[in-house]
From TrEMBL:
InterPro entries from the UniProt entry: A-glucoronidase_C_sf, GH, Glyco_hydro_67_C, Glyco_hydro_67_cat
Entry GO terms, CC: extracellular region
Pfam families cross-referenced by the UniProt entry: Glyco_hydro_67C, Glyco_hydro_67M
Taxonomic source organism: Desertihabitans brevis
GO biological process entries: xylan catabolic process
Domain Glycosyl hydrolase family 67 C-terminal, chain residue ranges per copy: 450-673
GO MF term (any one): alpha-glucuronidase activity
Span of domain Glycosyl hydrolase family 67 catalytic: 141-449
Protein name: Alpha-glucuronidase
Membrane-spanning parts: none
Length: 677
């Protein structure tokens, strides 16, 4: 293990702060967020030799809000140039209507950031680090979504196997220890700074599976929640809490949590008012109801609109939001029953409720219909509820993508989801996500925040994509590499970039072929176990037999799931010929000899990708080894250790999957490679 005791600066090392700290900086606003920014500038100038100045006309860098920019404009031409930006065509025109916007300009050697509000100024100032400007440049950016949220699956009580963080692979919880909210929140402050630099503005601090101890965050522990909120607020981040639907019973002592019962509504209203007394800018509640054993409205014969609305009405007077999760399915399914299809569940439950939710309900939908697998189609719920605010939920913590022991840069996967267009009108997932983006965080107390040092790139990329969903994920990777390793030689940075750029596809190649999921060890979900979930109640089957594999989800002969998509996707997924190869086994059950559009057969594809995947990891190991002595020693050592595990694991995946498919199909590898009998 690494010997680092203070957490890594991640993508904000001092050397990366030069654009904020080398010259004279003018920052005339005041207020809490501007004080935070001033602290950043003071730190950057102390390191890089610049200083703050009261005289705008002498400044090299002016950090302004609309409020202060007007007064300075007469004296500084670069400010006029920035303010005029709205009148010039290009990126800025699209940026204009959105809140949180900032404009950056550089003119005659002077750099200006004008934020529409203090949070926008903070984001714009951080943006300077990743996008140094040339003279004559004007850049405008505004977050595409008002809410960019990270959800922590953190508990107070530690689980005997998983520890304190459900699906956490990065040490302990940043927020909690055995006693509740940590006394020392200095790491939370550093974390908030990292998040703010990417544009994150909302954090849910506790697990959506709300256990008895954590339920009390809503009541007894409010003073401690207020301490967290105070830290996050300094960085423009609102605090949210996960709450249990049965709280009126478990905390309030009422006989029922029926959402239509007036006493229940009154309890939520009074409880929520107390939350706002403690945390005036509280963001709202995150709820997992009727899901994997959590209580919900079904228990009272009510539907999910009734359930979400009672909380929404309690929050509305205070400006809060309910993030209500659509992850509702039968986790006690009978594997013998081939007509029930977990993939259908969210759409079956929620699409009929479109238009029934209060305006401050955001329905939070996992990006795929199953559960954060390496490859899934986009959830059809996202196209089915135009009258509901939807947030798309991603999983930054790598539960099914290598658990932060494998390198797996997920930017390209998420980008593919966000750009997916349901129809020819080009309406993408990102534009449908009017409620914003949310993701499960991958950070904890590990020295590198994310266990695997390279997994930081996923945290960075999520925040950036939540602000700017159309940005090229490869550019985000470049930004992250530049910021994180500012002192490394260009060839070193290129090498890190190369190694990470295709790592999601590499991970897919040695784990999950053609859209088949869940071939992992049940419970902890790490490593191969092809039939591990095949006869369980979780609804996650691949139906491999001696002839073929895959789930028939067609309308013609299967579960009818394809019918949940609008055209053209409904027909495309329905048709064996038109279905994209990478999702073939998600939608169809086919013989092993079925020929893919790539020209190869299903079984040969499994062999080929698994051998190629291991070779790709071997190359990664070699590439990383060559960087020894050219990057920070602790980072190099930590990644080396994890790559060794990745290689071991990739070989295990290759061997188990190849053997499984050979044994089941009896079809040998065309290339005669060694497959264990
Ligand atoms: O993927 C599954 C995880 C659970 C998680 C659940 C969810 C918090 O295995 O650990 O519970 O999803 O998203 O609610």
């Amino acid at each position: 293990m690494s010997t680092v005791t203070t957490p890594s600066p991640a993508w904000l090392p001092d050397a990366a702060l030069a654009p904020l700290g080398t010259g004279l900086v003018h920052l005339p606003d005041d207020g809490p967020l501007t004080d935070t920014l001033r602290g950043e500038v003071e730190h950057a100038t102390a390191v890089h030799g610049g200083r703050l100045t009261d005289r705008p006309e002498t400044a090299d860098l002016l950090l302004l809000t609309r409020r202060t920019a007007g007064a300075v404009a007469a004296r500084v031409e670069a400010v006029r140039y920035a303010l005029d930006a709205d009148r010039r065509p290009g990126e800025l025109v699209t940026a204009r209507p959105r809140p949180g916007r900032w404009v950056t300009a550089r003119r005659s050697g002077v750099t200006v950031v004008v934020g529409d509000d203090p949070a926008a100024l903070l984001h714009g100032a951080f943006a300077l680090l990743r996008r140094p400007l040339l003279d004559g440049d004007v850049v405008g950016e505004a977050p595409a979504h008002p809410v960019r949220m990270l959800d922590h699956w953190d508990n107070i009580g530690a689980h005997p196997v998983m520890g304190r963080v459900e699906r956490g692979y990065a040490g302990d919880s940043l927020f909690f220890d055995d006693d509740g909210v940590r006394a020392d929140l200095s790491r939370v402050e550093r974390y908030a700074r990292l998040l703010a630099s990417t544009g994150i503005n909302a954090v849910a601090i506790n697990n959506v599976n709300v256990h008895a101890r954590e339920a009390r965050l809503l009541t007894d522990d409010l003073p401690d929640v207020a301490r967290v909120a105070e830290v996050l607020r300094r960085w423009g981040i609102r605090t949210h809490l996960s709450v249990g639907f049965a709280a009126p019973v478990t905390l309030g002592g009422l006989p029922t949590a029926d959402p239509l019962d007036p006493d229940v509504a009154a309890w939520w209203a009074a409880t929520t008012a107390r939350v706002y007394d403690a945390v005036p800018d509280f963001g709202g509640y995150l709820v997992k109801a009727d899901s994997e054993g959590q209580p919900g409205p079904f228990g009272y014969g009510r539907d999910h609109a009734d359930g979400a609305n009672v909380l929404a009405r309690a929050l509305a007077p205070h400006g809060g939001t309910v993030h209500w999760r659509a992850f509702v399915y039968d986790h006690r399914q009978d594997w013998r029953d081939r007509s029930t299809d977990r993939a259908r569940a969210a759409h079956d439950h929620f699409a009929p409720l479109d238009g029934r939710f209060e305006p401050n309900v955001v329905l939070q939908v996992k990006h795929g219909p199953m559960d954060f697998q390496v490859r899934e189609p986009v959830s059809p719920v996202i196209a089915a509820m135009p009258r509901t605010a939807l947030a798309v939920e991603l999983q930054v913590t790598q539960e099914y993508t290598g658990q932060q022991r494998h390198v797996c840069y997920l930017g390209p996967a998420w980008s593919q989801v966000l750009r997916f267009a349901f129809d020819d009108a080009g309406d993408s997932v990102a534009t449908r996500a009017t409620g914003g983006l949310a993701a499960v965080s991958n950070a904890g107390t590990s020295p590198f925040w994310t266990g695997h040092p390279l997994a930081q790139a996923n945290l960075y990329a999520f925040g950036r994509l939540a602000c700017e969903p159309s940005v090229d994920p490869d550019r985000l990777l470049e930004e992250w590499v530049h910021l994180t390793f500012p002192k490394a030689a260009p060839d070193v940075r290129a090498s890190v970039h190369r190694l990470m750029a295709c790592s999601w596809q590499v991970y897919e190649s040695y784990t999950a072929p053609l859209g088949v999921g869940f071939m992992v060890r049940p419970g902890h979900h790490y490593g191969p176990d092809v039939d591990g979930y095949e006869y369980t109640p979780w609804g996650t089957y691949h139906f491999a037999d001696r002839d073929g594999i895959g789930v028939d989800r067609t309308m013609a002969t299967g579960t009818g799931y394809t019918g949940q998509y609008p055209e053209p996707w409904r027909s495309r997924y329905e048709s064996l010929d038109a279905c994209p190869d990478e999702l073939l086994l998600f939608f169809h059950h086919v013989p092993y000899g079925h020929r893919l559009s790539s020209g190869t057969t299903v079984v040969q594809h499994v062999y080929d990708t698994h051998f190629a995947g291991v070779e790709a990891v071997e190359q990664m190991v070699g590439e990383w080894a060559a960087l020894r002595g050219r990057l920070e020693e602790d980072v190099h050592a930590e990644v080396t250790e994890r790559l060794a595990e990745q290689l071991r694991s990739a070989r295990e995946w290759r061997d188990q999957l190849c053997t499984y498919f050979w044994r089941h199909s009896g079809i040998p590898d065309e290339h005669g490679r060694r497959i264990h009998p």
